[in-house]
Amino acid sequence: MVKLNKEEFNEKIFTRINALISDYDLIKEGELIAVALSGGKDSVLTLHALKNYQQFLDFDMVAISVDEGIEGYRQHGIDSAVNNARQLDVELVQKSFKDEEGFCLDDIYQDFKSACIPCGVFRRNILNKTAYELGACKIATGHNLDDEIQSFLMSFARGDTIKFSKFGPELDVIHPKLVPRIKPLWNTPGKEVGMWAILNDIDIHLDECP
């Protein structure tokens, strides 16, 4: 069995992400990029990757975490977000469903076919509102290659061609108050994201959402 070299693997990961950002011009000099930081492996790698990219391009970063209010699950993710932001000296703005919307996800999820429906809607709204108020030019999300392919196949199977415009490493501006999104991990497989976190002993939230 060939032993994986941490330095070589890290270089591979960050070189690919850096090339994607450069090739698609995802970040421009002087911009403020808000990282949607859940504390999971994908968002944490996105934070580390953009911090690394600052050595090649002069831009600012801020991280935003959203506590949906899921008892016994969410706090570890918030702790991970706080620890990683502190380690990289990135400002973290913490928001919650309770403060922003007046309720926790635990209070309302039973009224929906799936808890993911209200969770996604309210989380995206809070992320966008916060990024807009902070003056962020873009929101960087942790969508990886697996996420992109799965979403595409689901939309294709449903014949939902309207959603095809949402695929790709950058989502265009569709409204003055909607902050455009970029996906620095767009061509990075989910397996490699997990390997990076384990190899580097990164503090991440691994629990499955209940």
Task: Write up this protein.
- This protein has one domain: HUPs (Rossmann fold, 3-Layer(aba) Sandwich), CATH 3.40.50.
- Helices cover 47% and strands 11% of the residues.
- α1 crosses α8 and α2 runs parallel beside α3.
- It has 210 residues and is α/β, with parallel strands linked by helices.
- It is globular and about 50 Å long.
- The mean pLDDT is 90.
- It has eight helices and five strands, in the order αβαβαβαααβαβα.
- Strands 3-2-1-4-5 form a five-stranded parallel β-sheet, sandwiched between helices.
- It starts with 5 loop residues before the first helix and ends in an 11-residue tail after the last helix.
Please identify, by name, the CATH architecture.
Answer: 3-Layer(aba) Sandwich
Indicate the percent of residues in helices: 40-55%
For the largest sheet, list the strands in their spatial order: 3-2-1-4-5
Number of strands: 5
How far is the first residue's CA from the last residue's CA?
A: 36 Å
With helices defined by DSSP (H or I, 4 residues minimum), what is the helix count? 8
Largest sheet: 5 strands, parallel
* Bulk shape: globular
> What is the CATH topology assignment?
Rossmann fold
Enumerate the spans where pLDDT stays under 50 for 5 or more consecutive residues: none
What value does the Rg take, in angstroms?
Answer: 17 Å
Number of structural domains? 1
* Order of helical and strand elements: HEHEHEHHHEHEH
Query: What is the level 1 CATH name?
Result: Alpha Beta
